Description:
The protein is mainly α. The protein has helices at residues 3-12, 15-21, 24-27, 32-45.
Amino acid sequence: MSPQKVYSILNKSKVLDNYLIRHYDVLHTLGKEYLVEDVTGCVKDWGYEIA
């Protein structure tokens, strides 16, 4: 999936504003693999699909 498509989904689902930006102080200390799984789970929980 292209970075533009991922950004569009994250923006539409409000994961950027309501999760990533809001909790950046903690999230930036976590590992990349954990973050990808966590964000993917949030997107799915909030009704969007990242293939």
